[in-house]
Amino acid sequence: MIDRRLLRNFNYPLILLVFITCLIGLAMIYSASHHLQDIHGFYARQLIWMGISLAGIAFILSINYQTILRHSYGLHFIVVLLLLAVVLFGPVVRGAQRWIFIGPLSFAPAEFAKITVVLSLAYYLGGAEEVKMLKKILTSLLIVFIPFVLIFIQPDLGTALTLLPTLFVMLYLTGIKKRHLLAIALFGILIVAPFVYHFFLEEYQRVRIQVLLNPGLDPLGASFSLNQSRIAIGSGGILGRGWLGGSQTQLHFLPAQYTDFIFSVVGEEWGFAGAVGLLLLYIGIFKSGVRIACEAKDRASSFLAAGLTTMLASHVLINIGMTLGIVPVVGLPLPFLSYGGSSLLMAMLSIGLLLNIHMRRFII
């Protein structure tokens, strides 16, 4: 049970912002899928996952985050084993191996790798003040590299990419000089990225990058999703077409409209005003995360809060950038909004850890 004294430090504004965003997500999932399913459709399953996720937050709050940090390597090792099991034994669903099925239930270990990477980096970097900088960098790269590769070959480029901003932000917080981080980034962009593009990306992934540079390429094929997303967002105007009133959504022109492209549904049905309102909710969540990181009582918890906030923020930036055609289409859900049990549980557990750090910041 949670110590009642800790409730005095509970961050009610943060959980309220998250709850409102989740309710908006339910409304958008219903709008995007009600004509496809009966009463037991996507929105109903998402509601069940919301209940499971809230229970997950309560469970996280009942454990001191420092205890969780001490077990971060073990948790990370378990998730890496699950990722390996997915690659070796996971069924191929829509051309990818991303899920583990247990009876009627399924989950994506890659979602939980995002959290264990942050936990492991926070535990290592938070206690590594006396470690030489080169060792810090190499060990941190190793923590990220193994799950990155296992996620990349599923293939799930979007999820793999979200690990990189988190790594860079947490390394920066340790005091690594900007020029060293810039050198690492330039090496990755100029040397590693072209090599990966030519030898490791699937053909459809290379085409998606080409579509980013030339949206008119293959309008009925590779660029169809991006073009439909832009049409949906643009047709919403200032105030939108109204809930259940978006033609791109209701006529099912918009692909993956209740998962990867749910922001396009928001733009079409609620317009510019609704999209900005949603962004303000996300900004409020991330500002709370930054404040928690700044007020944390030790280095490890500060790094943990900063890493979790960066990870969630990178999801939002990549997903919205994808729907607007600023970044390639990579198949990444929008936290708290997109349909998906694993992604929702991951995001809510991250919020649970942030609340945990905030609650215990004055407790010795």
From TrEMBL:
GO terms for cellular component: cell division site; plasma membrane. The chain crosses the membrane at residues 12-30, 42-61, 73-93, 99-125, 137-153, 159-176, 181-200, 270-290, 302-330, 336-357. It is an enzyme of class 2 (transferase). It is found in: Cell membrane; Membrane. Keywords: Cell membrane, Cell shape, Cell wall biogenesis/degradation, Glycosyltransferase, Membrane, Peptidoglycan synthesis, Transferase, Transmembrane, Transmembrane helix. It is a multi-pass membrane protein. One of its GO terms (biological process) is cell wall organization. GO terms for molecular function: lipid-linked peptidoglycan transporter activity; peptidoglycan glycosyltransferase activity. Peptidoglycan polymerase that is essential for cell wall elongation. This is Peptidoglycan glycosyltransferase RodA. The lineage of its organism: Bacteria.
